[in-house]
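S1.2 Input.
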Amino acid sequence: MDGMDWKKLLVLLSFALLALGCGEEELCTQLGVDGCYAEVGCQGGVSCALDAEGMNALCDCLGGLDCDQAWYHTYCDGAPYPPDGGCPACDE
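S1.3 Output.
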């Protein structure tokens, strides 16, 4: 193999390792977050309103991704939310 073949092989190997989950420290990816939103019925970049049950499900999903960004804490630090209120972003 010449030098260019090794570079191509290295790039392909890097993508394969990422696809297999070797980048586990990067669990909170945009794709993962989008998947969580889709699970609760919010998708396609359209804004949607969630009740406490939906917000709890979203926070559970995002928590599984190890999201530690400020937006996550703003919406999910108080979860699980009771059905009668207390959810900062819920459509009560």
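S1.4 Remarks. The helical segments are 3-19, 30-39, 52-64, 70-76.
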